[in-house]
Amino acid sequence: MIGGGGKTPALTSPSASEELLFGGELAYDVFDKHDGAFLKLGLWQMARQFPKLIAIGVRLAHMADPGRLRTVGLAELGRGITQALGLVAVNGVLGHLLAGGSTNERLQAALPALTVVAVTALAGSLLRSASTAAAGTLEPKVQRVATERYLALVHRVELSAIEDDEFHRLLDGARFGADSARRMIGYCTSALNSLISLVAAAGVLAVLHPVLLPLLVLMTVPSAWGSLTVSKQRYISFHAFVQHHRASHLLAQMLIQQEAAAEVRVHEVGGFLLTHYRSMSQTSEREQTRLARNAARTGLVSDAGGGAATLLTYGALGLLLWSGSMDLAVAGTAVLAIRTGSSSLESMVGQVTELYGESLFVADYERLCTEAAVRAIPSGGENLPEQLDEVRFENVTFTYPASKGESPGPTLRDVSLTFPMGKIIALVGENGSGKSTLIKLLSGLYLPDEGKGTIWWNTVDAARADRAQIFSRVALMSQAFYQWPFTFRVNVGIGRPGQPIDDDAVRTAAADSGADTVLAKLPHGLRTLLARGYRRGHQISGGQWQRVGIARARYRQGEILIVDEPTSALDAVAEQRAFDQIQALAATGQTVVLITHRLHSVRHADLIHVLKDGQVAESGTFDELMHPDTGNGTFRKPYLLQSHAYGLPAQRDTDAAAPETA
Ligand SMILES: Nc1ncnc2c1ncn2[C@@H]1O[C@H](COP(=O)(O)OP(=O)(O)OP(=O)(O)O)[C@@H](O)[C@H]1O
Predict the structure, then answer these.
(1) According to the model, what pLDDT value does residue 310 have?
(2) Which terminus of the chain is more exposed, N or C, with fewer CB under 10 A?
(3) Which of 411, 479, 595 to mutate to test the pocket of ligand 1 (most atoms within 8 A of CB)?
(4) CB contact at 8 A, 543 and 571
(5) Contact (CB, 8 A) for 466 and 472
(6) What is the complex's ipTM, to 2 decimals?
(7) Whose CA is nearest to atom 5 of ligand 1?
């Protein structure tokens, strides 16, 4: 039972598909997180939380369009007042109609009140249309403002936050939060309207007989309890299953996405994925069935309570009539007021329940915005030196943030090395030795573990420096460089996104990186869209993309050009050309940090750092590393292996000293 208690929902145990594909259960225990704490609250506390949640939505609406928000509020207030006046006028009409005299006289006496009924109905309808028009304009604006706000915050968070699955859970919730903020407007206006007409009916009832008022409230308590309980259960279930939903969606996507299309067909992966998609969906369906059963049970209990309260109310009314404490005209108005009041209450409870459900997602959204602000890359800090001589790692240790239930060891341990400016510095080492991680630290994407080493930009500590300045000094062509589904021009020009794209500079960068030959074959030149699946879309190969990636990094004109595996997908000619160009760049004073597994490509580097298991195994020039007296073999041995395998020179072209063939 989840209703008012704080227990975890009875989640279905992990399916065989979850075990096989994802290595275990994907559901979350929402109560092991501090942010689920308010879900442990009972109805009364929930009611007290409610204004705070509404305030979040209203604040967003105010940010989006204060004028329209005012219009909606005033129009709804006006509608409530017209309804109250209408009800009072109906009381007048009934009073006159049930009084003594001829039908004609009674009708004539009732005429002014009847006119008030008609005028209030007309005014109510005009106000409703004003509210509908304003709310219709306000809603999409609220969604845009809410979405823009969280995207603006999220794109500035530290990389470690983006890689954190808890942060992703918040992100999933927040995406719904922006939609919920939009829907809240509609529910808010309806709830406000119901509240005002309820107050009107309650006011009339209180005047007619004080005992009727608490009875009216009593009639609604059971359905309020039922609706809020069901809404809370749905919310808890959503959070518990958010990762599960994401994974099912992923499976469905794999069946249709272009990247997997060939393997899906040739390896006949389609049936496999579909089976697991079905199994995962069935787990979700079981959860939906559980929710539906709970909702049905809750509904029965609340209906029984509501029925008893209604019986009590009409019984009380009958008693008042029978005992002569109320006359027939007043009883008629009372029945009308009870019906209006209870239907307003009913609708208000419905709207408030929906509003409550939506507001929980908006609260998630707020939590994400707060968390994103906390985890944002700090702005400001010390200025970097104008004239940079070197970036130096001093005893740097770095550990990736822990995934849930895991405590990873450091990926980089006690790393000390330098990147002198104006040189080619190569980073080599086995798979997983920490090269890409190291360049993420060099680029300012991560900082060393607290108190465990420093990255010096001359004499400025990167941890205290203005990170935006670090980013602006670096041009990065990482292994996972992004293939933007935009035109060739934008794919290169996005290297300097703050400025208008300069076509000549795009062509020069393309020529510098070998992407000019790619460009020459494109059907619409710079305007060619590099994305299949769109109109005019054109597909280029992996190696061609790599050249475009290098062109982008080149176009950026960063002081330090980092190229991670620039030639892994290039053919031999293109590879040679890429390295010639890197050398030519270095000759112009450009600092190049080069990561590669093709060791013969680093022969001309000014400095080579060799990593092994997250530590620096050796550093030096090619000659130093190759010489048995100065190198420890970490570089020399794999180099010689590669040179034998590919028939490449076992030494620098100009070398006279024959290295040891270990
Ligand atoms: N985002 C991450 N979160 C957690 N661990 C990571 C992350 N990225 C890399 N690692 C881990 O850090 C270690 C070093 O990875 P890294 O990518 O830096 O190696 P690399 O030397 O560049 O390898 P390769 O030559 O295969 O590209 C690996 O054990 C990897 O699992």
Answers:
(1) 85
(2) C
(3) 411
(4) yes
(5) no
(6) 0.97
(7) 400
